Amino acid sequence: MSIFGKDLGIDLGTVNTLICENDEIVLHEPTVVAIDIDELKIVDVGHSAREMDGRVPESIEVSRPLRDGVIADFEVTHRMLGYFIERVSGPARLFKPRVMITVPLGVTSVEMRAVHEATLQAGSRDVHLIQEPLAAAIGVGLPITTPSGNMVVDLGGGVTQAVMIAMSGIVAQGATRLGGLKLDEAISTYVRKKYGLIIGPRTAEEAKIRIGAALPQDEDRTIEIQGQDQVTGLPRPVTISTSEIVEALQETLQLMVMSIRDVLEKTPPELASDIIDRGMVICGGGSLLRGIDKWLTRETGVPAYRAEEPVACIARGAYRGLGMLDRLRRTLPKV
Ligand SMILES: Nc1ncnc2c1ncn2[C@@H]1O[C@H](COP(=O)(O)OP(=O)(O)OP(=O)(O)O)[C@@H](O)[C@H]1O
Ligand SMILES: [Mg+2]
After folding, report:
1. Does the reported pTM lie above 0.90?
2. What are the backbone angles phi and psi of residue 209, rounded to the nearest 5°?
């Protein structure tokens, strides 16, 4: 820990925000804010704001301030970060924390400055940015400072990102602004077309998490979901199965894998052999989809392994990155 205050690693994701302190995850909340639009003030953030969605009067708007991995609403993001930092640091702090916070690959300089500025305004000092998959590689403990090639794929809610890292540098990278939220949309579209039923995004996500898979499974599970009949407008249930979700997800998964193929194509031959031997590490909430490791192995020809702590590793890597600033300086995004 720095003598001037604490060090925090923050994974600012489209769907979830995590904070790591002393190598432990001290906050894990949805990146969601509830705003009173008449009084223009934040009513709640995180889990409790998410619970309000669809259950509160119209004057309260529940929204995500990030879209496709980047800040869509600056004002709301910096205030949300302020709440989160205060929650882990306490309101009356003598010294502001030093922070390393994540950004997706391929962000513009304007988008990077927004994250930097929002984090400063949220009550921190000395803010450093780190690319999400680089943070993941550090959090997983890959030997990124060595000359061997390390490949990491982050399957997030808003973005899919892949990198090849060697000697603390990013050798090749690829990103698609498609993630878990698009998989949920694909399930909604499938159910609407096949059953004439309109379902909300949370229902689609629940079906994906409870019974979904990237590949057909030995046990074809089912779930009953509630929706609204497209014609009559009346509520109606329908039972869907794992194999239907597998079918619904294929097209979006094919688009997501393009960023990974991109990286493999750009990788120098010396490193490519390391990757064939050691495989790629997958992380992010999307890596929890059943069979996604086998699916990626089949689609890319490179063995894919899920990280041990696929969601926590990114915030943890950001935290650890503060202790490696000298080695990373060349690679970290410059604001
Ligand atoms: N068991 C599961 N199976 C499939 N998907 C899952 C599972 N658990 C979580 N997810 C999905 O993971 C996504 C969230 O992942 P994550 O928290 O890594 O995203 P994020 O970091 O907020 O987004 P990004 O990095 O793209 O900005 C959601 O779309 C969620 O539905
Ligand atoms: Mg993420």
Report:
1. yes
2. -70, -40
